[in-house]
Amino acid sequence: MAHPLLSFAMRRGGSGLVSLLLVSLLVFVGTALLPGDAAQSILGQNATPETLAALRQQLGLNEPLPVRYWNWLVGLAQGDMGTSFSSGRAVADLLWPRLRASMTLALAAAVIALPLAISLGILSALKRDSFLDRAISFLSMWLVSIPAFLTGYILINIFAIRLGWFPSLSISHGSASFMDWINALVLPVTTLVFVTIAHTMRLTRTAVLSVMASDYILMAEIKGLSPRRVTLTHALPNALSPILSISMLTVAYLMVGVVVIETVFNYAGLGKLMVDAVSYRDLPLVQGCAVVFSLVFVSLNFAADFLSVLVNPRLREPKE
Amino acid sequence: MIRSDSFTRRALLRGTGIAAIASAMPYRLLAQTPNRGGDLAIAINGASSGDTLDPRSFNSPFMAVVGGTVFNTLVETAGADGATRPGLALSWSETESGKVWRFDLSQDAVFHDGRKLTSADVIYSLMLHVAEGSRSNSRPIINSIETIAADGDNAVVITLKGPNYFFPAALSNYSLAIVPDGTTTFDGIGTGPYRVTRFAPGEVLETERFDGYFRKDRAFVDKVSLLGVNDAAARVSAIQSGQVQISSTLDARSVALLQSLPNLKISYMTGAGFAGFNMMVDKPPFDNVKLRQALKLAVDREDMIQRIFAGQARLGNDTPIPPNSTDFAASVEQTVYDPDRARALYAESGHSGPLVLQTSDAVGSEAVDMATLFAEHAAKAGITIEVKREPADGYWSNVWAKAPFHATLWGARPTSDLIMTLAYTTGSPANDTAFADPEFDAALATARGSSSEEERKAAMAEAQRFLHERGGVIIPAFANLAEGLAANLNGYEAGTLLVGSTRAAENVWFG
Question: For B413-461, what is the HEC assignment?
């Protein structure tokens, strides 16, 4: 039993590592191709030929690109992500607090959005073409068609400015109490729930409906089982693997794709860190962020595949 | 002629009016007893995850305010004209016609770790900026020092390489913050009114009142948090919702809407930073002074102030010195929009065909709008300007100071002499119009070496006249940057640097 699963995991893990390596190479070459070098953008208008040369030397920018890449890769393998050009601090020290912040935001949004979206999706599928189905569809399509930043500003305007219930800037105060911290998260999390719920809900509905169209569901219905039982014990387990994939991708999106929300609420997450890093040509930091981003994506994809296989016996033991 | 005189007078009157109101205000308000207590949060742009508490790295709006909250400089500037006032140096005097300067230090100043301020700290802090590998924006200032020596524990004597009566004012640069002698790990130990309790680069700097602060009649609020808020819309919502009590630079277009709110006040910072257009005087066709003069006459400055800055800007006269500066030369005729004269000069210059003006978002969204408007104005004088928008990436290395006609941006420098020297003297590496004029250089040198204020101002006026007549830079206006204040905040004095000349934290109180 465990054997095919294990080999599946190994295969998937291996291809994940290859993707990671490719991403790091792409990022390395990509940042090197950007116009203007790191020394120039750190110094800006204060640059003089001497300070530029000194800084380039200091940052190791005079070495050829393949050498820099190799050194970085060797460091990474030993857990050393290098030193940020602009602040001189270890990249890992800059990344961890931001990764924690991004994970907090993503998980908080996922914990609310996913169960809500999945149950609404199942409900829609069950009550297909009813008024409820249409209402849910309409509302969710309406929410998803508003750009995330606008949703954010509307929420700020109502709940931060007019009502004054929540802060408009989600800045983590070290001294703040747990309640303040929750308060600061409410608006960005709500915005993220709004923008992700429709998409997950629609996909869940489609997955359940497509399973509902299969012969064994018809069989179950002919046997005289209640619609509730048909959906929950016959259809849902088979629809579970696409739903799991959607959920994992939603979490991945929440982790890495929310830089706009981070900007609107001034939330110090990974996205903003990477934007900062790019504008300062802080190569080690950009590379560190890219590695974390792709690691998150690859591992969530891996988790999605693995879980799909786990819940679906047919995938677990493929026929010869 | 008559027209230009009236402009100068009006600008002058407006300038002095602002100054009079601004200088009368704090004293009237100080007459009430300031309340102690309360927490202050300030939203400031320009924060980066690369920020450090090493004063040599201070080079952004956010870190400038950190400097003014946690540290002190020897000399400070304040008020709408940016006049100098004592900082850690209570007084200063010169000998040898401005070559040797003596600064007497406060005897009460104490660092946050309890050590007393001595001359050794001052010497160490200043010389840090010219140490190997320093990328400080104060480097040119400290480079002008020949020797620096302690005269006892409470005075330093600085000998300059040449006479410079602007030197004390230059020491007000926010990166010249004083740290304890021998500091190598910079964790925010200064002599300032607030002491760092937590610093998350790019996010927030939290502080609490330092009881040992040497100005006993200052620092009223208990805690000050400086929040890095780089997004303009986020700053507007933060000040609107009351999450912060001071916000730096607000978008000119939002200000009109914010002004009607009862819980807010709008204050204007009258800085010397500017966006302008560079005509490289060493590159054809701009090596022709008539063409440069034609273009200076072809921009409608008043229209630009109304349409780009919503009326909140001071007229520029193609020199980097704004009308509210104490060094401003009111005697130099103000250039006004004159399409007919521009057309005539353009014909005399012999140039024909479109002029390509390169600009970019790197210079700011306003610079792009300014260029478009400039092209419209110039068209009425029969001059064709083609605005070419360059990518922000690489603008400073590939276009700025290289393309014949391009947009530029300068942040305020601590003295008029510094910006004039840096940007327009012969051979300066940052001379972005390649302006090389021996008379201009000589006038600046005379100004630096003049002990009498009158002579100094006259020489400075000469330098401004040369730049105005022959220079390659077009500076249509100096924007007044709007700052938001909570209605219950008192004691705030707008200055030529952001957030109350960076030192609002020690001056304000709630009431």
Answer: CCCHHHHHHHHHCCCCCCCCCCCCCHHHHHHHHHHHCCCCHHHHHHHHH
Rounded mean pLDDT of B179-202? 93
Cβ–Cβ under 8 Å, residues B448 and B424: no
Residues of A in contact with B49 (CB under 8 A): 84, 86-87, 94, 98, 272-273, 276-277, 285
Return the CATH number at B230.
3.40.190.10
The predicted pLDDT at position A100 comes to 87
If asked whether residues B495 and B457 sit together in one domain, one would say no
CB contact (8 A) between residue B396 and residue A45: yes
CATH code, B426:
3.10.105.10
Residue B438 lies in a domain: yes
Looking at the fold, whether B381 and B493 belong to one and the same domain comes out as no
Tokens of B274: 């500017």
* Closest-approach residue (CA) in chain A for B138: A46
Q: Is A265 on the interface with B (CB under 8 A)?
A: yes
Considering the domain architecture, whether residues B495 and B448 belong to the same structural domain is answered as: no
Q: How far apart are CA B212 and CA B218, in angstroms?
A: 11
Per-residue confidence at B500, pLDDT binned at 50, 70, 90? very high
Tell me the nearest-neighbour CA distance from B335 into chain A, angstroms: 28
Confidence at residue B6, expressed as pLDDT on a 0 to 100 scale: 38
Q: Which residue of B has its CA nearest to A271?
A: B49
A52 pLDDT above the threshold of 80:
no
B385: left (phi over 0), alpha (psi -120 to 50) or beta: beta
Q: How far apart are CA A154 and CA B391, in angstroms?
A: 31
Q: Does B352 share its domain with B472? A: yes
Give A227 or B317, the one with higher predicted confidence.
Answer: B317
* Closest chain A residue to the Cα of B199, Cα to Cα: A174
Residue B203, chain A, CB below 8 Å: the answer is yes
CATH topology of domain A4-34+102-316: MetI-like fold (1.10.3720)
Answer whether A183 touches B (CB < 8 Å).
Answer: no
Q: Taking the domains of chain A in order of start, what are their residue ranges?
A: 4-34+102-316
Q: Is B53 helix (H, G, I), strand (E, B) or coil?
A: coil
Inter-chain residue contact B202 with A40, CB threshold 8 Å: no
Residue B184 in domain: no
Three-state DSSP at B63 gives helix
Answer yes or no: do B396 and B383 share one domain: yes
Average pLDDT (B200-214) is 93
**B242 with B309, same domain?**
no
Q: Is the dihedral of CA A106, A109, A114, A120 positive or negative?
A: negative
Chain A residues with CB under 8 Å of B244 CB are 169
* Token digits of residue B76: 């400070």
d(CA A195, CA A152): 10
The pLDDT value given to residue B17: 39
Q: Is residue B284 part of a domain?
A: yes
The answer to whether residue B176 is domain-embedded is no
Domain containing B157 equals 75-170
Distance CA B244, CA A266 (A): 13
Nearest CA in chain B to A94: B49
The DSSP bridge partners found for residue B196 are: B207
Same domain? For B64 and B125 the reply is no
* From A40, A41, A167, residue closest to B243, measured CB to CB: A167
Chain B residue numbers touching A263 (CB-CB < 8 A): 230-231, 234
Co-location of B330 and B443 in the same domain: yes
Say yes or no for a CB contact (<8 Å) between A272 and B202: yes
ipTM: 0.77
CB within 8 Å: A36 and B244: no
Q: How close is the nearest chain A Cα to the Cα of B200, in Å?
A: 9
Nearest to B237 among A51, A168, A273 (CB): A168
Residues B358-412 have pLDDT tens digits of 999 888 878 889 999 999 999 999 999 999 998 887 788 789 889 999 999 998 8
